[in-house]
Structures are given as structure tokens and as C-alpha cells.
Amino acid sequence: MNAKLTLTSNDGQKFEVEKEVALQSQMIKGMLEDIQSAASVPLANVNGQTLAKVVEYCKFHYEATKKGDTQKTKAAIKKWDKAFLNVEQSVLFDLILAANYLHVESLLQLTCQAAAKLICNKTTQEIRDMFNIENDLTAEDEAQLLSEIEWKFE
Amino acid sequence: MMRDPLEALGPLCASNVLAFLGPHDLARCGAVSRSWKARALHDGQLWAPHLARLWDGKVYIPNAIRELAQVSPHRAYSESLRDAARQLPTEAELCSFTWALNFKALLSWFSTALGSASIRRYFNPNHTVTAPADDPMWGEVEPQRHYWYFRPEVDGSTVLQVNTYPPLVCTRTADWGWELSNVVVRMIIDTAAGPNPGIPPGHPAAQEALTLAQIEARFNGLLWQNEFG
């Protein structure tokens, strides 16, 4: 039999999940070790939209690992993860923060890698433009940087 | 509107993201703004794995750069790349290694005669060149004193001159060692043999009295005769 657990987001949305699914979060796992009878977990740092995605991720990965570790499932998981990450940048950042807060290590690695891909192979100016960052480096700073990291401009 | 990930994610998660970037991407991030510079360049943990990979399998990294790595790994990374392009070793560097000498094809009969015996040479701070006691060419005591000095060429380059032998051109190898080469021989750093142990006490070269100026005067004069005499 599988015990259920209710996760509540900071905007009041409730998600009922199997305990085993929720245990992928080290933070929830630790919480349940302290209070074993808990049936409801309030998550003050995660909104409903993000928690829905995290639950979706944990459910899929729980089911996928139950099926066994064949090459076929590995490829299927990879494909699913890729589709899962096809989200707006703001959602991706919220997922990183939620994965960090809930301590879901595999989701944290997955989302951080996806965020790194946004920056990968971009010039400094392209990064500024993408994230709307103002260049507040002084001419002195820039000259020093140029001498320190000239090799990467070559 | 895309949000600045450093602000949106906070320092810990932002570093988590940057940890997925290679050194080139990380360096470009370091030039975005002040806060990006602090996050991407001044975090030793981000650079330590890149530096370890860069140094892996390399023959020689100057001590100054190893020390710099303790303080600023990203600068040590840059300095390493810059230093690896330096063709001429310093006198101290030349004297610090054991050098393995091999004959080129031109004198391959020499190699054949010597069999598999390895020939090693030491460049010493008093500008003498010596060999281990069991040297297959020189034996216990070398037949004549060998001297080394750096000599500027007319084209502005510097070569390593040993007696009146054809000058040795110094170049870097792919593993950040050096190759000293002329038409006859090729010398590379023999890492397995360890550093130059120094001239043993009592060895004639230990009492060498010639100054560098005297050595230069003697051999430059002979080189002149070779070319024009």
C-alpha cells in the first residue's frame, strides 16, 4: 500500500502525491523523519505553477526508475526530460530555486545545465543583451580583464 | 523580459549553473558586469576543475603559476596558457631538468652503435654541461669540457650554444616541456630521471673557473672562424 501526502504551495494549491514520489525531495524526506505522522507538507517557498512541474517531474522519474534501468528507459527518460525543460526562462529559474529548496538533486542538475546552455557559446555582449544587464565595469576593470583573460578572445 | 540569472537565482544556484560552463564561456561571463565578474572569475571552486584538466599530463608548470593557483585559479589558467607559448626557457629552468638526448636520422648510425642506452645531459648554473657518471658516450670523465650559453642570433631570436656545435633551437612541446634541437640532436626533458641533481663534489666541472664572458668570448670567436675562416 502506498501512503499519500499532500503538498501545499505558498499560494494555497494542494497536490496529493504518493509518499514515495515526494521522498525524492531530500528536504521532505528529512521533514518526514522528524514528523512521521505528517500527512500534509506546507512549502512556503514554492508557488503552485512551479510545484505542479516539480510533482510532474518526481512522478515520472519515480515510475521510470521502478521500471528498471534498461537502455530503452534511459533514452526515454532523456527524451522526457528534454520536453520537460521546454519552458519559459522564468519557469526554468523558478524550477532551479524549487529544486534547490526541496533538495531534488537530479532536477537541480538538470535545470542548472539547461540554464548554462542559455549562456553557452554567447559573447559577453550577447549575454548582456539576453538578460538585460547593464555593463557597470570601469575602463580600468575591462583593461585588467583583457590582460587576465585575453586567451578567450583569440 | 529575461531576468539576470545572478539576481533571480542567488549566489549558490548561480554558481551551480556556472559550474556547467567551460573555461571560455566562464571567462566571457566574467566580463559581463561587476557582479558577473565576481561570480564567474573569483570563485576558485569553479576554476579548480578546469585548471586541473589543463595541467593534466603537462611536463612543466612554473612554481610562480602553481602559487598563483592557490590565490586565483582563473588567473593561473590564463598565465598557464600564456607561459606555454614561451619558447625560450630561463637559465634557471634549463638548469633544473635532466635532459634526454637523441640523435636525429642524420646520425642514426650513432644511435644504433649506442643501442638502447639513454644519453642524459645536465646544464649547470656555472655554464658547464655534464652527464651522469655512466654516460655511454663520455664515460667517467667527458673527453673535453662542454659549456652552454644563450646566444642572440642576427634575426633577433636566441639560441642555446654548446661549444661550437650547431646551435640548439628551443621550442615548446605539446606537453609544455621544451625541445632543444639542431640538425644532429634533439633533447627533451626527461621527467622520469627527476631534476638535475647538481654537479657531484670532486667532479672537475665543479671547479670550473671560466666566467660566462670568457666562455662567450672563446666560442663566439670560434663560431666566427667556422663561418668565415
From TrEMBL, chain A:
The record ties this protein, via PANTHER family, to:
SKP1
> Which SMART domains does the record cross-reference, listed alphabetically?
Skp1
Q: Which Pfam families match?
A: Skp1, Skp1_POZ
Protein encoded by which gene: PLEST004685
* Provenance organism: Pleodorina starrii
Is RNA-binding found in the keyword set? Answer: no
- Family designation: Belongs to the SKP1 family.
Q: What does this protein do?
A: Involved in ubiquitination and subsequent proteasomal degradation of target proteins. Together with CUL1, RBX1 and a F-box protein, it forms a SCF E3 ubiquitin ligase complex. The functional specificity of this complex depends on the type of F-box protein. In the SCF complex, it serves as an adapter that links the F-box protein to CUL1.
List the SUPFAM superfamilies hit by this protein, alphabetically: POZ domain, Skp1 dimerisation domain-like
The record describes its quaternary structure and partners as: Part of a SCF (SKP1-cullin-F-box) protein ligase complex.
Q: Which GO terms describe its biological process?
A: jasmonic acid mediated signaling pathway; protein ubiquitination; ubiquitin-dependent protein catabolic process
Write out the pathway annotation from the protein's UniProt entry.
Protein modification; protein ubiquitination
This protein's UniProt keywords: Ubl conjugation pathway
Q: Where is the SKP1 component dimerisation domain?
A: 106-151
Q: Does the keyword Transmembrane helix apply?
A: no
The organism's place on the tree of life at top rank = Eukaryota
Write the protein's name: SKP1-like protein
Automatic annotation (TrEMBL), chain B:
What name appears for this protein in its UniProt entry? F-box domain-containing protein
Q: What is the lineage of its organism?
A: Eukaryota, Viridiplantae, Chlorophyta, core chlorophytes, Chlorophyceae
Q: Which residues form a coiled coil?
A: none
A UniProt-annotated Pfam family: F-box-like
What's the domain of life for this entry? Eukaryota
Domain F-box stretches: 16-47
The encoding gene is PLESTBF000302
Source organism = Pleodorina starrii
